[in-house]
Amino acid sequence: MATSASTPPAASVGIPAPATLVELLKPITWFAPMWAFACGVVSSGMAAEGRWPLILAGIVLAGPLVCATSQAVNDWYDRHVDAINEPLRPIPSGRMPGRWGLYVALAWTALSLAVAASLGVWILSAALFGLVLAWIYSAPPLRLKQNGWWGNAAVGLCYEGLPWFTGAAVMAGALPDHRVLTVALLYSVGAHGIMTLNDFKSVEGDARMNLRSLPVQLGTDRAARLACLVMALPQLAVILLLSAWNCAGHAALVTGLLVAQLALMSRLLRSPRERAAWYNGTGTTLYVLGMLVAAFALRALAQQGAA
Fold first, then answer.
1. Average pLDDT for residues 190-197, to the nearest whole number?
2. SS (H, E, C) the chain
3. pLDDT tens digits for 68-98?
4. Tens-place pLDDT, residues 32-65
5. N or C: which end of the chain has fewer CB within 10 A?
């Protein structure tokens, strides 16, 4: 149908294009919490038959809703930093005009809570906790990301531990087993190191805007060494726990993945500034594969207990 001459195009009235909205919500970032949610589902030991609608709703909640909300909130409150670090992003570039970034963040928050409420009290509680962390991570007055120690901890919990918990709770309809909670927490701690490496791409802008990321506080060399240590130690703890729980085969697989990461870390540490993104695409892949291996170990334990 032809557009009336009296109707202005969307851009002239300040409405962002759909593609710009998708870019703001950053689908590439949804993978981590969706993967962690899937690990939670597996680790519960429950059969998926008859639960697929619930599982799919949980995956949507973890990625396109809660994680996407965190991205919109972060980009709105980071718009001045992004004008230095990444000026082509939707808000600093002007493609997401006015206060649209804030409106999207608020709308996605409300939508996330509505979906979570339909999935039960445990899921609503987890989603509410995650959304609160998403807002206080980026928004004043707390703005946890102003200090890399606190900010990275919040992101690690939201990206790994919380969706893992949610996936297990969706399946069980109750508080997950303590072993599930322990492993989920350990992988959340390790994700702190992943987030430290992620901050390497924005060192200059963070320093100018007084965002005390760990690369800014410690320097890139020390921050990289810390990130490697923080990623490796929780995996070592998982290996020891799996061994203690008589999951020797799974422990051996996680060990192999950790050894491969250590080899990649040695290369990272020779040039951390240039290779941080490379490591996040290689070593982090091995890290999340280890999560799935641990989830299958927990599944085996749950099924043994139910037998």
1. 96
2. CCCCCCCCCHHHHCCCCHHHHHHHHCHHHHHHHHHHHHHHHHHCCCCCCCCHHHHHHHHHHHHHHHHHHHHHHHHHHCHHHHHHHCCCCHHHHCCCCCCHHHHHHHHHHHHHHHHHHCCCHHHHHHHHHHHHHHHHHHCCCCCHHHEHHHHHHHHHHHHHHHHHHHHHHHHHCCCCCHHHHHHHHHHHHHHHHHHHHHHHHHHHHHHHCCCECHHHHHCHHHHHHHHHHHHHHHHHHHHHHHHHCCCHHHHHHHHHHHHHHHHHHHHHHHCHHHHHHHHHHHHHHHHHHHHHHHHHHHHHHHHHHHC
3. 999 999 999 999 888 888 899 999 999 999 9
4. 999 999 999 999 999 998 899 999 999 999 999 9
5. N
